[in-house]
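Hi there,

I know you've been waiting on this one. I reran it after we fixed the sequence typo, so this is the corrected version. Both the input and the resulting structure follow.
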Amino acid sequence: MYTKELEAILKKSLEDFKLDKSEKHALNKLSETLEEDQLRFLRNKAFDLSRTYIEQGGVDAIKVHNWLDRVVKSIQPLKNNMFIASEAFFSPGNSCRNKIVNLIAGAEKNIDICVFTISDNEITKSILESHRRGAEVTIISDNDKANDRGSDINYLSDKGVKVILDKTSYHMHHKFAIFDNKVLLNGSFNWTRSASEVNEENILVTREAGLVALYGRQFESLKKRLM
């Protein structure tokens, strides 16, 4: 898969803190096929690798910085004609789950999640990884579903992710998320294994600023009401 190939290139080039012509070309060509959230994930991976080397000590920080600078410059930014304002994905199948995981992994600053429940281990793993690398993750979810067998909501809370639960006898039935205040994900898709494996579900991903802002205000309103 493209992400594994790109990570392999990054790790190999870190052996001598250089990015030779062949590595630079391979990185450049592979990154041309990525979407915006996947490019962010790749940049985050490069920063994570460089931070690990510096924290371990015994490595010239300037060499690591120069390597990181070359890597970031080699990753192609999205061209205007590649920008997609909105995308739709459907299940059964993995396209909805994969898009959610990629958006979570690609977020740089904050992730606001407002969903009925979370019980898909791949999505949970991606949320935890983003939380651990410093992204501000906030989850609003339903209090009744949080106690269902297989739910990961309380587990995520125990791991330090900020979780806010509905406090009424009715359901908090939203299924949307906002990434870096720029990308909105919304649709019928429940963040569960069955949603990918057997259910007829959908998600819509948009960067339309007005919609992102509208859902952002709803998220903040819910958060204020439930805290």
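Quick highlight: Residues 2-76 form one domain.

Best,
R. S.
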